[in-house]
Design a protein that fits this description.
alpha/beta; globular
């Protein structure tokens, strides 16, 4: 017995101490977690890179890649119990891309994600939610990333309402990264997956969100009322925009709502600086197409700032003339320039815009120009 005990002790001594005690994390998701399209490697995708990045920051963990190609969130609910059976400390959840392909509703995806997270938490793990990455503009489904953006807002709302941590690849890739689709995606016939550089960037996004006292993401969008793209909206509708910040918190003194290009006096609601609701009741009825924007920054040092439009909707009874590309009620030189910049672009091109394809034949050409010219100088409201 003494000899056996001595042998076991020698064996354990030969194993690095870190390998005996590393906390176990699980990266759960679809083919993007699995690492489809990555350069040849024994450890593809973002999880292995994330493990190495965290080690450089003295956060030593063992990250298990539990990505499964083609999986939807409904299928993830079935698989999660098996994956988490051995337990772990952190459960990284990024899934929903295949649901968007299948045109599953945002509400259903969000419900499924919460159920997956709850099952991991039932095993004693901390669930960390992540937004999905955007897809190329030429993708057959959701090339404009409207559904992916709506899902990102829903995931943020879910994380905020359940007090979970959030990683936000959608925000970083879609809004903060220059030429992401040209640089960080496979491209060609593949409209969804990162290349090797993209997986490296994805791991960086995760590492920054999971490292204490690192905050590189500005306040991000939650729910917007009226909905982006809405039509027949009552002219006296209240505008409400929810903002979340999962880092240092929102600087309310530097946050404002912008309607049709002008700052408006809005009220602030929300329990703390993690969530702020900007609420605006118009003093006069709204008309035409209404554009809602936000200007905000957080309390990080240095602060992360954001200023962008977050919603456009159309007031009930509004009529637009063909060629009124910017929907300001008049067909003018601004509309002509917008068409000229995209002239000749087929639907497969990144220059294509459905709003400028006036006859909806999947190419911006002389027929669209003729429609615009027929109404040039005319106003509808």
């Amino acid at each position: 017995m003494k000899r056996a005990a001595l042998g076991l002790a020698l064996l354990l001594a030969a194993v690095p101490a870190a390998a005996q005690t590393l906390p176990r994390w699980i990266a759960f998701g679809d083919s993007i977690t699995q690492g489809f399209g990555d350069a040849p490697s024994t450890d593809p995708g973002y999880p292995g890179r994330l493990e190495a990045l965290l080690a450089q920051r003295n956060i030593n963990v063992d990250i298990v890649n539990a990505g499964f190609g083609g999986e939807t969130t409904a299928e993830g609910m079935v698989r999660v119990n098996t994956v988490t059976a051995q337990g772990g400390r952190i459960f990284l959840l990024m899934e929903g891309t295949n649901d968007i392909n299948a045109k599953v509703s945002t509400e259903t995806i969000s419900f499924n994600l919460n159920q997956i997270a709850l099952r991991a938490e039932g095993r004693g793990m901390e669930a960390v939610l992540a937004t999905v990455i955007p897809r190329l503009p030429s993708a057959n489904t959701d090339g404009g990333n409207r559904a992916a953006g709506a899902l990102a807002a829903a995931v943020r709302t879910l994380a905020g309402s359940t007090n979970r941590r959030l990683v936000d690849p959608f925000e970083v890739l879609f809004y903060q990264t220059t030429n992401p689709f040209d640089t960080y995606y496979l491209g060609g016939t593949d409209k969804l997956h990162p290349n090797a550089a993209g997986y490296t960037l994805l791991s960086q996004i995760f590492a920054d969100a999971l490292t204490p006292n690192v905050d590189k993401v500005p306040p991000v969008l939650g729910a917007v009322v009226p909905d982006d793209g809405g039509a027949n909206v009552p002219a006296t509708s209240t505008i409400r925009v929810s903002l979340y910040d999962f880092g240092a918190g929102i600087d309310r003194m530097q946050t404002r709502l912008i309607v049709n290009g002008q700052p408006v006096q809005s009220t602030f609601e929300g329990p703390d600086n993690r969530r702020v609701d900007l609420v605006y009741l118009p003093s006069t009825p709204l008309r035409g197409q209404v554009t809602v924007g936000i200007s905000a920054r957080d309390l990080a040092t240095p602060p992360n700032a954001v200023e962008r439009n977050v919603s456009q909707f159309i007031i009930a009874g509004t009529v637009f003339l063909a060629g009124d590309v910017d929907r300001n009620g008049r067909v003018d030189g601004a509309d002509l320039i917008a068409l000229a910049l995209r002239f000749g672009a087929p639907r497969s091109s990144t220059r294509y815009s459905a709003d400028i394809d006036l006859n909806h034949d999947n190419v911006i050409d002389g027929l669209d120009l003729a429609l615009l010219a027929s109404n040039f100088g005319k106003s509808s409201f």
